[in-house]
C-alpha cells in the first residue's frame, strides 16, 4: 500500500516518447500523485535502448526490457527500505513494470506498488 514515504517514479520513457509532446504521460500522472517533495521522476533510467514493445509477444517483451533499467546513482541510498509507487501509462503484459520493480527491489526498495492508467485486455474467444 502506498505511504507518505512513497516516491512515485514513472517508468523511463522511450526515445519516441521523449519526442512526442504528450510522451511523458506517466511522468505527468506521477507528479499529480506525489506528496509534496516526494516525486522522483529520474529514480529509474534506461541503461540501453529497447525499441518499441508494440507487436512483441509477452516473452519477447520480457526479453526486450531485461537489464534495460537501473536506479539513478543519486537516488541509490535514498530508496532503501522504502515503499515505491511505480506509475506507468499503459500495462499490456506487465514486462516493463516487472523489470522496473526488480531493479527497485535489487536496489533495496522494500515494496513496489504499480499504478497504471490503462490496461490492455485481450478478447477471449
- Indicate how many domains the architecture comprises: 1
Shape: globular
Q: Give the strand line-up of the largest sheet.
A: 1-2
Protein structure class: alpha+beta
Q: What is the N-to-C succession of helices and strands?
A: HHEHEEHE
Distance between the termini: 35 Å
Radius of gyration: 14 Å
Mean pLDDT: 78
Number of E-type strands: 4
The helix count comes to 4
Percent range for helical residues? 25-40%
- The residue ranges in which pLDDT falls below 50 over 5 or more consecutive positions are 1-5
**Main sheet attributes: strand count, strand direction, barrel closure:** 2 strands, antiparallel
Strand content: 15-25%
Structure description:
Helix 4 links the parallel strand 3 and strand 4. This protein is globular. It is an alpha+beta fold and 125 residues long. It has one domain. Helix 3 runs parallel beside helix 4. The chain has a two-stranded antiparallel sheet with strand order 1-2. Strands 3-4 form a two-stranded parallel sheet. It is built from 4 helices and 4 strands; from the N terminus they run ααβαββαβ.
Compact summary:
The chain is built from 4 helices and 4 strands, in the order H-H-E-H-E-E-H-E. The chain is α+β, with helices and mostly antiparallel strands and 125 residues long. Helix 3 packs parallel to helix 4 (95-106).
Give me some keywords for this one.
single chain, 125 residues, alpha+beta, two-stranded antiparallel ribbon, two-stranded parallel sheet, 4 helices, disordered N terminus
